[in-house]
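Figure 3 (text version): structure tokens given as input.
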């Protein structure tokens, strides 16, 4: 049987409450006493009794996370950040993946409720008044990430519309005349929650309008978006064209296709992504993209959830910052 907080308290000549403050990095204790307690705990290989803590607090110390999938590197980065911050705050993570299926999303939420999670962080697929009422019926704290459900829920995100508008204005400043916008999720408009993608598309249109580009962009929503790009002509004799992708993952596939055709980037065709996923450091030419701190998304989502769990409410989280990364592809 492992050593307990009470036993560490006796050895150190302090109260169990003081040991608890030291081990959980809480205020109200001197650095000298804290260092002594931590060293004794280390020597005795102290391991927290999470079951006892859960029973004492009336919580499972678990936060459920509902994501699309982990194919997109930005989701994988987000999940790593969520898990790290949960662990730092003494919570475990129960992850479920919806595969972008609205019915499966509700099944995933029900699974988390049966597991008695203390709160839920969700990148929602469902939307609308009925789903809003459904979330309210759960009686657990909910934090939404990227895809907004309604103003009744804590929301973590950036101003996607403004970010994409500024990205398009940046491209226009480079003298591009024709635009192709690649966003397969737009084919789900009116069917599922694609709030983030709709905002980015709206920003693209606003940016073009403000730059005086009257020709509408070619909008690619095909699942086989690379095939659609393959039927287009670029380079000699064609207007100077920029392909704007709503996510980096699409831009990387398009870049690979363009290179396979022997097209030069950006001489024959410009290319822009969005997200600045971590694998871009291996890509040539360096992709011009929009960056936001995905780790902050995870950190703020967890902090917001924990505040609601432990205090009953949470302060609104401001929209997070972003910036354009000027690569060599535009």
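Below: residues designed for each position.
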């Amino acid at each position: 049987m492992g050593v307990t907080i009470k036993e560490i308290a006796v050895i150190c000549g302090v109260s169990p409450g003081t040991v608890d403050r030291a081990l959980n990095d809480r205020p109200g204790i001197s650095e000298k006493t804290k260092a002594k307690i931590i060293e004794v705990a280390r020597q005795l290989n102290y391991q927290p009794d999470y079951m006892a803590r859960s029973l004492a607090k009336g919580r499972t110390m678990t936060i459920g996370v509902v994501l699309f999938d982990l194919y997109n590197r930005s989701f994988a980065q987000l999940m790593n950040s969520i898990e790290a911050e949960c662990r730092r705050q003494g919570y475990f993570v129960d992850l479920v993946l919806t595969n972008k299926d609205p019915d499966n999303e509700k099944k995933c939420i029900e699974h988390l409720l049966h597991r008695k999670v203390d709160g839920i962080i969700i990148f929602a697929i469902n939307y609308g008044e009925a789903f809003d009422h459904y979330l309210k019926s759960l009686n657990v704290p909910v934090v939404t990430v990227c895809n907004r459900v309604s103003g009744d829920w804590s929301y973590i995100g950036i101003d996607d519309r403004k970010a994409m508008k500024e990205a398009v204005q940046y491209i226009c400043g480079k003298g591009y005349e024709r635009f192709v916008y690649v966003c397969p999720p737009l084919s789900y408009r009116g069917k599922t929650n694609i709030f983030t993608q709709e905002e980015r598309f709206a920003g693209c249109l606003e940016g073009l309008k403000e730059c005086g580009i009257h020709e509408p962009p070619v909008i690619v929503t095909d699942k086989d978006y690379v095939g659609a790009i393959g039927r287009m002509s670029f380079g000699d004799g064609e207007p100077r064209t920029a392909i704007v992708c709503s996510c980096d993952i699409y831009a990387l596939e398009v870049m690979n296709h363009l290179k396979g055709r022997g097209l030069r980037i950006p001489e024959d065709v410009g290319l822009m992504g969005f997200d600045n996923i971590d694998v871009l450091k291996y890509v040539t030419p360096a992709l011009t993209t929009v960056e936001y701190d995905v780790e902050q998304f995870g950190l703020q989502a967890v902090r917001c959830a924990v505040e609601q769990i432990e205090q009953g409410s949470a302060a609104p989280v401001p929209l997070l910052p972003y910036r354009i990364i000027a690569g060599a592809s535009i």
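The chain has three domains: 5-43, 56-156+294-319, 160-292.
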